[in-house]
Amino acid sequence: MKPQRHAAILDLVRIQRIPSQEVLRERLAERGFEVAQATLSRDIRELGLIKMPEEDGGAVYTVPAHVTDPTPALSRLLPALFL
Amino acid sequence: MKPQRHAAILDLVRIQRIPSQEVLRERLAERGFEVAQATLSRDIRELGLIKMPEEDGGAVYTVPAHVTDPTPALSRLLPALFL
DNA sequence: CGTGAATAATAATTCAAA
DNA sequence: TTTGAATTATTATTCACG
Predict the structure, then answer these.
(1) How far apart are CA B55 and CA B74, in angstroms?
(2) pLDDT digits (tens, 9 = 90+) for A18-62
(3) How far is Cα B42 from Cα B9, in angstroms, rounded to an integer?
(4) Which terminus of chain B is more exposed, N or C, with fewer CB under 10 A?
């Protein structure tokens, strides 16, 4: 079950605002994955997710850029090169 | 005191392995900044620091790349372009 | 406004179990 | 090897104060 759950987590984190493992647990449950918080703590580490602080007090779990990135390398990097 | 402390935090996070706010507090104390954990929680948010999970169970506070980066853009990006 | 002490909320780990 | 319940550790927030 872990692989599917991991995929679901990555998906959720990309399309929704997930501020805590508890919220993530609820969303996963809606998708049919009923797991304990302990499991999510492990999943999050295994997936390398990070909790990004926001301007306001909030924070959201996100996928690190180098993992996320579906964008072709060149078009993504050119702007950074000021070309 | 906050600006100096913020600078010290960025510095520490770059040169040492800071796995928790408690450890950060100790390191700052060594540098003469004696603050409570509550303050560090705020500082970390203000600085936009994130706690990155590591392969093993650990985690470390780090400065997001775009903020950190002292490296010249080109030499940094070429490897990503497979050149 | 920045801070700390106390507290609440959240996340990581332990320890059994399947 | 994966999981969850309970526990511990860590982090965020509240509330009062200088």
Answers:
(1) 29
(2) 999 999 999 999 999 999 999 999 999 999 999 998 877 789 999
(3) 12
(4) C
Contacts of B68 (CB under 8 A, 6+ apart): B14, B62
Contact A24, A12 (CB under 8 A): yes
Q: What are phi and psi of A61, to 5 degrees?
A: -75, 135
CA–CA separation, A81 and B60 (whole Å): 29
* Packing angle, helices B37-47 and B2-15, rounded to 10: 80
Residue B82 has pLDDT above 70, yes or no: no
A30: three-class secondary structure by DSSP: helix
Residue in this structure with the two tokens 């600078």, named with its chain if needed: B7
Amino acid letter, A72: P
The residue among A42, A45, A52, A83 with the most chain B CBs within 10 A of its CB, best to mutate, is A45
φ, ψ of residue A57 to 5 degrees: the values are: -65, -15
CA distance A3 to A58: 29
**B50/A52 CB distance under 8 A:** yes
Q: Which amino acid is at B44?
A: I
Q: Find where tokens 């706690």 sit.
A: B51
